[in-house]
């Protein structure tokens, strides 16, 4: 049985609406004012949490300009950049973390981060973050996982680029070093991701295979994939967030704008509400609409003893008469009294 995970009072699990996270990443464009505006917009969109990324260029890569450190993929959003320069543009200054976290608290948002090395975890521990996220590109960084695990806090792991054996290794590393609460996020590590590569049917398989809660780190455009994932048991959804894609943030091309994020929150909750249980009964509200079903009615004035025919008997709305299954059985029967057009047929009106 899955453990119930609680992050700052918010319960996460299939009994609750999906926990929705707005990922700021580098969409602040190196402006603290814009970062704080993103926080406010996320709160107004109704998400549960805002997520940061904690690194510096020097903690994530080397200041080296050779082919290994150059983004060569012609389809990449970041093609033509050296890694060090790319991370100079996108990192969130560490001195911003405290004011961002404080603004989140003021607005009722949970705030946590993705650390990219052990020193990042040490720093985030001084800020008392409630949980940690491990990025897809870091899920093989076992020293980082061990450092996070000893905090004992819940850990969310994106699974992009990891084979099943590597996920087993990551999960076992966390569990063996102190982590009790793990959420695995199905993730397609391309930016933006094509829905055809999302393979969200993996989500329930992951839950059974690893015995933990599951969710989605969604890099596709729009909200369709996230909404669909709820049907498969998603309890946690993460989407990149920007004030406007026209701002040109580092991840803006596959980020949601405020109205889209608001729609994500609303529609994933509706999807969750719709799951219900296996049932072929109709609800109390549906009972009021039984009148719109078909049933059998007298369609012409009749006198006692008249014979029912296809000309004086009809299957019509509303549904207060006999079920249409009896229509053929009634043909040729006599009526027991005078009947007006529009009378609902019942067995008391039929001779014998």
Give the arrangement of secondary structure elements:
Elements: E1 5-7, E2 10-12, E3 19-23, H1 32-45, E4 49-54, H2 57-60, H3 83-90, H4 94-106, E5 110-115, H5 118-126, E6 132-134, H6 142-149, E7 155-158, H7 164-176, E8 182-187, H8 202-210, E9 213-218, H9 224-231, E10 236-240, H10 258-275, H11 284-287, E11 295-298, E12 313-316, H12 327-330
Parallel strand pairs: 3-4, 3-10, 4-5, 6-7, 7-8, 8-9, 9-10
Antiparallel strand pairs: 1-2, 11-12
Helix pairs in contact: 1-4, 1-10, 6-7, 9-10
Descriptive notes:
32% of the residues lie in helices and 16% in strands. By secondary structure, the protein is an alpha/beta fold. The protein has 2 domains: 233 residues, TIM Barrel, CATH 3.20.20.70; 66 residues, Type Iii Antifreeze Protein Isoform Hplc 12 (Alpha-Beta Complex), CATH 3.90.1210.10. Strands 5-4-3-10-9-8-7-6 form an 8-stranded parallel beta sheet. A two-stranded antiparallel sheet has the order 1-2. It has a two-stranded antiparallel sheet with strand order 11-12. The protein is elongated.
Classify the fold: give the CATH topology of the largest domain: TIM Barrel
Order of helix and strand elements from N to C terminus:
EEEHEHHHEHEHEHEHEHEHHEEH
**Structural class, judged by helices and strands?**
alpha/beta
User: How many structural domains are formed by the residues?
Assistant: 2
Average pLDDT number: 96
């Amino acid at each position: 049985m899955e453990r119930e995970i609680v992050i700052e009072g918010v319960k996460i699990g299939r009994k609750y609406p999906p926990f929705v996270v707005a990922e700021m990443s580098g969409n602040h464009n190196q402006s603290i004012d814009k970062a704080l505006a993103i926080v406010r917009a996320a709160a107004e969109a109704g998400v549960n949490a805002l997520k940061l990324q904690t690194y510096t260029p020097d903690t994530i890569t080397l200041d080296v300009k050779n082919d290994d450190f150059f983004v060569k993929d012609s389809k990449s959003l970041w093609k033509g950049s050296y890694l060090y320069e790319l991370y100079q543009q996108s990192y969130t200054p560490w001195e911003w973390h405290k004011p961002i976290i404080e603004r989140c608290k003021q607005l009722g948002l949970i705030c946590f981060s993705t650390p990219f090395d052990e020193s990042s975890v040490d720093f985030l521990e001084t800020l008392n973050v409630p949980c940690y996220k491990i990025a897809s590109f870091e899920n093989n960084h076992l020293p980082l996982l061990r450092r996070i695990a000893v905090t004992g806090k819940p850990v969310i792991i994106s699974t992009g680029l990891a084979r099943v054996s590597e996920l087993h290794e990551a999960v076992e590393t966390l569990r063996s070093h102190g982590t009790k609460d793990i959420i695995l996020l199905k993730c397609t590590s391309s930016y933006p991701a094509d829905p055809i590569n999302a393979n969200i049917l993996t989500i329930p398989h992951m839950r059974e295979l690893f015995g933990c809660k599951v969710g989605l780190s969604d890099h596709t455009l729009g909200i369709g994939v996230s909404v669909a994932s709820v049907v498969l048991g998603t309890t946690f959804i993460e989407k990149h967030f920007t004030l406007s894609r026209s701002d040109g943030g580092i991840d803006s091309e596959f980020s949601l704008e405020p109205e889209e994020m608001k729609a994500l929150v609303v529609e994933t909750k509706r999807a969750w509400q719709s799951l219900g249980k296996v049932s072929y009964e109709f609800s109390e509200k549906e009972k009021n609409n039984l009148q719109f079903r078909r049933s059998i009615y007298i369609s012409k004035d009749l006198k006692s003893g008249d014979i029912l025919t296809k000309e004086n008997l009809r299957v019509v709305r509303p549904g207060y008469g006999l079920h249409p299954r009896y229509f053929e059985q009634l043909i040729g029967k006599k009526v027991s009294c005078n009947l007006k057009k529009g009378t609902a047929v019942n067995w008391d009106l039929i001779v014998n």
